[in-house]
C-alpha cells in the first residue's frame, strides 16, 4: 500500500506498526492527506485476514502529533455562504467516518504514544482500543483548541466524556489543559505508561491478549461514567459548570460554550449521532469571526514571529553564548534565569557582591519551585546555576556577545551603565536596554556604538511572560536587530519589533486602559463597577488592580515625567491627582507594599477593594453607569491607540500589534488583538463608535486620520499588510 504520511511495517505475527511521519515538518499534523491514508489503512485492516492488529506510533522524537493542520482549517473557513458551511461539515464528518472505521474494524488497534499528543492527534488515539504512553516527563496530552477559538472536532467532545465522565473531561477541553503521562494514566485516558523503548513491546502484547476488542460505547451494556446529563451528578456538572463558565469567560468565548453544548447534547444520543452534533458545533466555531482572528494571531502570527519573520534576512544568524546582565533585581535575575535555562553563560553584575549574589539566589528559588512541581531535577538546578556568575566588575564583560541592561529606570543611571559597559565589551557586542518607556534613541546617545544599541523590553515576571518587545532606535543597525531576535528565539519567547517612541508600543497602549479606569473613577463611577467592566471586556484584571500590580507609585512617577518632558505642563490631570492621593497621602503603593486600590495579604493575594477608596472626592458615587458602555470605552481606547501607533510607524506589522497586545498586557484574546478587533468590526463602524465616544467623553477617543481613510476606502489592516507582502 502506497503511503506518504505513514510507514507500514508488518511483522511475522501479523501485527502492523503504522509509523506517522508527516513529510517536511518537524512534528506530525492531522492533515486531510493523513486522514485519507488512515481510511485506506482501516479498510486493509478489516479486509486482510493475515493482519492481527495495528499499532499507531510516530517517527518524530518526543512528538506523536501536534494537532490538526490549521492551515487547511483556515482554508476551509476562508470561503463564504452555504457552500463553505457544507464543505466544513462534510470535511469533519469525513474524519469521523475514518476514525469510526478504525474503531469498528474488528481488529485491535493500539496507540503507542511516544511523546506529546494534542488536539486531533489525541482524538486519533481515543479512537484506538488501547493507549500506551511513554513515561517521558516532558510528554503531554491535551486539547488546546479552545485557546484559538475552536472545539475538539474529531470526536474529542464525545469519546472523552464517555471514557472518563463529563466532570473529568470538561475541564481538560474548556481550559485547554495539558497533562503529563502520570496524570493521563491516573484519570484513565491512557491505560499504560512505559519507557519509550518498551512502547512497541507493550502494545503488541496487548494486541495478542485482546484479539477482538470493542469500544466501550459500542457495547450494549455501556453506561456513561458517573452518569449522563439527566443523572444527579450530570445535572450538577452541567448546572454548576455553566455557571462557572459564565463567571470565568463572561460569555466572550463562543468555543467554550460550544464545547459545553456539544458534550451535553452528545451524551443524550448514540455515538454516531453525537458526532454529527459535534461537527455542527465545530463548524459554527470555525466560521466565527472570533475563531478566525484567534487562529490568525495566536497560531499563525505567533509561529511566524517566533521563527524570525521580522529578522533582517541578509544578516547571518548569530549565536548568543555569553550574556551580560546589568542589575540583579527582579528583572535582571529573571533575565539571567531564562537565559541560563537556554544554555547561555550569564555574567550577572550589580553594585555590590551581596546584590549580585541575591540575584542568583532569586534564580535558585525559581528552580526550587520548578523542582517542587516536578518540572526540574536537582541535577538540572545545578546545571543552570553553574551558568550564572555574579560579579561587580564590568571587566567581567570582556567576552560577552550581548549585554542586557536592567538597572533603575533613570536616564542618568542607564547612561552610566552604558558607558562602563562600552569601555569593557568587545566591539562586536550588542547592547540591549530593558526599558519600558524611555526612548532608545535618547539612551543610545551614551553609547560609542549607537548602531549596536537596541531596546529589549521584557515583561514581568520574566519566567512566565512569553513576549519580548524589541525596540529599534534611529541609529540601530540590522546586526543588532538580528542578534536580539536570535537571542529571544533561543530563550523560547516571542519577539515583536517596534520603532522608537515614548512608551514604545506596549506601554503606550497599555496605559490607556489604566488611565481610562482612573478617568472613570474621576467621573465618580463606583470602583466595583469599573473593575467588573474591565474583566467583562476580556481583560485579565480590572484597571485599578492592574495599577496595583504595576505599582501605583511607579505609575505616578511615569505620569509626572511624561507631563514634564512631553506635555511641558505644571498642572497634574485628574488621574495623576488620584495616584498622588493614594501614594503620598495614604502610603498605598500597590501590591509591593500590600496596599493600593485593593488590600492584599502577606503573599500578595488580592483581598478586597480598599474601603478608604470610597472616601476620595466630595460627591456621591454613581452606580447607574451602563457596563456595556464602560466595556466599549476600555477596549476602544486601547485599540485606537494601537491604530495611532500604526499610523505613526511605531508599529509596521499588524502581527506585532496583535500578538504584542495579547501576550504583553492581556488585551482581550477573543478579539485576536486590537487591530484584528478593528478589522472584524470594520473601520467604518469602529470610527463611528470612536466619534460617538468622543462626543460623550472627550477628544481622546477621536479617531486618527489613517482610520478615517480606511473607513472611507473599506480597507483593513491585514488587507493592507497582505498587499505589501505580495508587492
Low-confidence stretches: none
User: For this structure, what is the CATH class of the largest domain?
Assistant: Alpha Beta
Number of helices: 29
Across the major sheet, the strand order is: 13-12-11-14-15-16-17-18
Proportion of beta-strand residues: 5-15%
Beta strands, count: 20
- In CATH, the topology of the largest domain is named 2-enoyl-CoA Hydratase, Chain A, domain 1
- Basic shape: globular
For the sheet with most strands, the description reads: 8 strands, mixed
**Overall number of domains:** 4
Q: What's the CATH superfamily of the largest domain, by name?
A: 2-enoyl-CoA Hydratase, Chain A, domain 1
Question: What is the mean predicted local confidence, pLDDT?
Answer: 95
CATH architecture of the largest domain: Alpha-Beta Complex
User: How would you classify the helix and strand content by structural class?
Assistant: alpha/beta
* Multimeric organization: single chain
Distance from first to last alpha carbon: 44 Å
Radius of gyration: 28 Å
Can you give the helix content as a percent range? Answer: 40-55%
What does this structure look like?
- There is one protein chain.
- The chain is α/β, with parallel strands linked by helices.
- It has four domains: 6-287, 2-enoyl-CoA Hydratase, Chain A, domain 1, CATH 3.90.226; 322-502, NAD(P)-binding Rossmann-like Domain (Rossmann fold); 507-615, N-(1-d-carboxylethyl)-l-norvaline Dehydrogenase, domain 2 (Orthogonal Bundle); 634-726, N-(1-d-carboxylethyl)-l-norvaline Dehydrogenase, domain 2 (Orthogonal Bundle).
- Helices cover 50% and strands 12% of the residues.
- It is built from 29 helices and 20 strands.
- The strands form four sheets. Strands 13-12-11-14-15-16-17-18 form an eight-stranded mixed β-sheet, with helices on both faces. Strands 1-2-3-5-7-10 form a six-stranded mixed β-sheet, with helices on both faces. A four-stranded mixed β-sheet has the order 4-6-8-9.
- α1 packs parallel to α3 (82-103), α9 runs antiparallel to α10 (254-266) and α12 (289-306) crosses α25 (654-665).
- The radius of gyration is 28 Å and the shape is globular.
- The model has no long low-confidence stretch (mean pLDDT 95).
Amino acid at each position: 500500500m502506497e503511503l506518504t504520511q505513514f510507514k507500514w511495517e508488518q511483522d511475522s505475527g501479523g501485527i502492523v506498526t503504522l509509523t506517522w511521519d508527516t513529510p517536511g515538518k518537524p512534528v506530525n499534523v492531522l492533515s486531510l492527506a493523513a486522514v485519507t491514508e488512515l481510511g485506506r489503512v482501516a479498510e486493509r485492516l478489516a479486509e486482510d485476514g493475515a493482519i492481527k492488529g495495528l499499532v499507531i506510533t510516530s517517527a518524530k522524537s518526543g512528538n506523536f502529533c501536534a494537532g490538526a493542520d490549521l492551515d487547511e482549517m483556515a482554508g476551509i473557513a476562508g470561503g463564504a455562504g452555504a457552500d463553505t458551511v457544507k464543505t466544513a461539515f462534510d470535511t469533519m464528518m469525513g474524519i469521523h467516518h475514518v476514525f469510526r472505521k478504525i474503531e469498528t474494524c474488528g481488529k485491535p488497534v493500539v496507540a503507542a504514544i511516544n511523546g506529546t499528543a494534542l488536539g486531533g492527534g489525541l482524538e486519533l488515539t481515543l479512537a484506538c482500543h488501547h493507549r500506551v504512553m511513554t513515561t517521558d516527563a516532558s510528554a503531554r496530552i491535551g486539547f488546546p483548541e479552545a485557546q484559538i477559538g475552536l472545539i475538539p472536532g474529531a470526536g474529542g467532545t464525545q469519546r472523552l466524556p464517555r471514557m472518563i465522565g463529563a466532570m473529568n473531561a470538561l475541564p481538560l477541553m474548556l481550559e485547554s489543559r495539558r497533562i503529563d503521562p502520570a496524570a493521563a494514566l491516573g484519570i484513565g485516558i491512557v491505560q499504560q505508561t512505559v519507557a519509550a523503548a518498551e512502547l512497541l513491546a507493550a502494545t503488541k502484547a496487548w494486541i495478542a491478549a485482546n484479539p477482538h476488542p470493542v469500544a466501550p460505547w459500542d457495547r450494549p451494556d455501556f453506561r456513561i461514567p458517573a452518569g449522563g446529563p439527566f443523572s444527579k451528578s450530570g445535572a450538577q456538572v452541567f448546572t454548576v459548570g455553566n455557571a462557572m463558565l459564565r463567571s470565568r469567560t463572561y460569555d466572550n468565548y463562543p468555543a467554550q460554550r460550544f464545547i459545553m453544548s456539544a458534550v451535553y447534547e452528545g451524551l443524550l444520543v448514540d455515538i454516531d449521532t453525537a458526532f454529527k452534533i459535534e461537527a455542527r458545533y465545530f463548524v459554527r466555531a470555525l466560521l466565527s469571526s472570533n475563531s478566525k482572528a484567534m487562529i490568525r494571531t495566536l497560531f499563525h502570527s505567533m509561529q511566524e514571529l517566533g521563527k524570525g519573520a521580522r529578522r533582517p534576512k541578509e544578516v547571518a544568524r548569530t549565536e548568543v553564548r555569553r550574556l551580560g546582565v546589568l542589575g540583579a533585581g527582579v528583572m535582571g535575575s529573571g533575565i539571567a534565569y531564562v537565559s541560563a535555562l537556554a544554555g547561555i553563560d550569564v555574567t550577572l553584575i550589580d553594585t555590590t557582591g551581596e546584590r549580585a549574589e541575591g540575584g542568583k539566589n532569586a534564580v535558585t528559588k525559581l528552580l526550587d519551585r520548578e523542582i517542587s512541581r516536578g518540572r526540574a531535577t536537582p541535577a538540572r538546578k545545578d546545571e543552570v546555576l553553574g551558568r550564572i556568575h555574579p560579579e561587580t566588575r564590568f571587566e567581567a564583560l570582556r567576552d560577552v556577545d550581548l549585554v542586557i541592561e536592567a538597572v533603575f529606570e533613570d536616564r542618568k543611571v542607564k547612561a552610566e551603565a552604558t558607558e562602563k559597559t562600552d569601555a569593557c565589551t568587545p566591539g562586536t557586542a550588542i547592547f540591549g536596554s530593558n526599558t519600558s518607556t524611555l526612548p532608545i534613541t535618547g539612551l543610545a546617545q551614551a553609547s560609542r556604538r549607537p548602531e549596536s544599541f537596541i531596546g529589549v523590553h521584557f515583561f514581568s515576571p520574566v519566567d512566565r511572560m512569553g513576549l519580548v518587545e524589541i525596540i529599534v532606535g534611529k541609529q540601530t543597525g540590522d546586526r543588532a536587530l538580528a542578534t536580539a531576535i536570535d537571542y529571544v528565539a533561543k530563550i523560547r519567547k516571542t519577539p515583536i519589533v517596534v520603532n522608537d517612541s515614548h512608551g514604545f508600543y506596549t506601554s503606550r497602549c497599555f496605559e490607556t486602559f489604566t488611565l481610562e479606569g482612573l478617568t472613570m473613577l474621576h467621573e465618580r463611577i463606583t470602583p466595583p463597577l469599573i473593575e467588573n467592566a474591565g474583566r467583562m471586556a476580556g481583560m485579565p484584571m480590572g484597571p485599578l488592580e492592574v495599577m496595583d500590580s504595576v505599582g501605583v507609585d511607579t505609575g505616578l512617577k511615569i505620569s509626572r515625567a511624561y507631563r514634564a518632558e512631553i506635555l511641558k505642563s505644571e498642572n497634574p490631570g485628574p488621574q495623576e491627582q488620584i495616584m498622588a492621593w493614594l501614594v503620598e497621602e495614604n502610603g498605598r503603593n500597590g501590591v509591593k507594599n500590600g496596599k493600593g486600590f485593593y488590600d492584599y495579604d502577606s503573599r500578595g493575594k488580592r483581598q478586597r477593594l480598599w474601603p478608604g477608596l470610597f472616601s476620595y472626592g466630595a460627591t456621591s458615587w454613581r452606580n447607574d453607569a451602563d457596563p456595556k458602555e464602560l466595556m466599549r470605552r476600555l477596549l476602544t481606547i486601547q485599540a485606537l491607540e494601537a491604530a495611532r501607533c500604526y499610523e505613526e510607524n511605531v508599529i509596521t506589522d499588524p502581527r506585532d500589534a496583535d500578538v504584542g497586545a495579547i501576550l504583553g498586557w492581556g488585551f482581550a484574546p477573543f478579539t485576536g488583538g486590537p487591530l484584528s478587533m478593528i478589522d472584524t468590526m470594520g473601520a467604518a463602524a469602529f470610527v463611528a463608535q470612536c466619534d460617538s465616544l468622543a462626543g460623550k467623553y472627550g477628544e481622546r477617543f477621536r479617531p486618527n486620520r489613517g482610520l478615517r481613510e480606511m473607513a472611507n476606502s473599506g480597507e483593513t489592516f491585514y488587507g493592507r499588510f497582505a498587499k505589501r507582502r505580495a508587492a
